[in-house]
């Protein structure tokens, strides 16, 4: 059984039995595990998506999701956010502009009766593979700044250090100084939280670097483009579809960013020595 952690709603405490060097320890120990909670997103009373997420930074998560999924165009389209805990999860209610609400309703009417792919409320292939605006050319980024930023983000993954179960997404400026880090059990959720945090804090993110502690999928490139950031650095590999989108979106995609190594898959001219 697990019990809540009063000081950290993003993790719980459980009892475990350790096995070390092939031997079972005689005593149980307390250990921390990441929380995973159903989070439902509603826009002007319209239920749109329910996802499993870590229950922290949910305002950032909801705003980032709305921006990266094209439900709203900017923070000015958001009128308010309410986070409402329920007995079986959390409902996040967003009030958005009437124009964005009408667009969302039209999208949902167009989806009615069609076979779905099950991606976050998106039910047609054109919605999944929607085009993105190419990001503007920002200032070049030194390779040592990119490598240092990834190391710094890893040092700031406090929930991962406690539980070993979460991904992180961070933003660093062009000099490699990490300004924001968000964590979640889901890599997409962590990046949505980061996109929302950048928007809520009005960070001029275009000249910086998005860092993710995971592979770089197509959706991760989409979300980076929605934030207007020209460099995405991932600890692990990208997919072929992610590389194609990064080329089209004018995003420098770096994979296998570990220690002093990296592989540049698109627009390497943005990275300098």
Automatic annotation (TrEMBL):
Any idea where this protein resides? Cytoplasm
Q: Which family does it belong to?
A: Belongs to the FdhD family.
Gene3D superfamilies reported in the protein's UniProt record: 3.10.20.10, Cytidine Deaminase, domain 2
Q: Which SUPFAM superfamilies match?
A: Cytidine deaminase-like (SSF53927)
Name of the protein in its database record: Sulfur carrier protein FdhD
**Function field:** Required for formate dehydrogenase (FDH) activity. Acts as a sulfur carrier protein that transfers sulfur from IscS to the molybdenum cofactor prior to its insertion into FDH.
Where does the record place the catalytic residues?
A: 117
| Keyword Cell membrane appears in the UniProt entry | no
List the keywords (alphabetical): Cytoplasm, Molybdenum cofactor biosynthesis
């Amino acid at each position: 059984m697990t019990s809540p952690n009063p000081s950290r709603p993003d993790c719980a405490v459980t009892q475990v039995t350790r096995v070390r060097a092939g031997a079972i320890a005689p005593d149980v120990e307390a250990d921390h595990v990441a929380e995973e909670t159903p989070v439902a997103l509603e826009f002007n009373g319209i239920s749109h998506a329910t996802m499993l997420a870590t229950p922290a930074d949910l305002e950032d998560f909801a705003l980032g999701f709305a921006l990266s999924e094209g439900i709203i165009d900017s923070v000015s389209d958001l009128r308010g956010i309410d986070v409402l805990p329920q007995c079986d999860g959390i409902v996040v209610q967003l009030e958005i502009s009437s124009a964005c609400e009408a667009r969302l309703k039209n999208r949902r009417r167009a989806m009615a009766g069609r076979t779905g792919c099950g991606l976050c409320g998106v039910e047609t292939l054109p919605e999944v593979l929607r085009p993105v605006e190419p990001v503007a050319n920002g200032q070049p980024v030194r390779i040592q700044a990119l490598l240092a930023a990834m190391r710094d983000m890893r040092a700031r993954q406090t929930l991962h250090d406690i539980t070993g179960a979460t991904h992180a997404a961070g933003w660093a400026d062009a000099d490699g100084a990490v300004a924001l880090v968000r964590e979640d059990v889901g890599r997409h959720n962590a990046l949505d939280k980061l996109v929302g945090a950048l928007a809520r804090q009005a960070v001029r993110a275009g000249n910086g670097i998005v860092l993710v502690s995971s592979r770089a999928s197509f959706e991760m490139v989409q979300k980076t483009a929605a934030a207007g950031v020209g460099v995405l650095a991932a600890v692990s590999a990208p997919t072929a579809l992610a590389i194609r989108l990064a080329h089209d979106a004018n995003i420098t995609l770096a994979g296998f960013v570990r220690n002093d190594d990296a592989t540049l898959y698109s627009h390497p001219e943005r990275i300098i020595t």
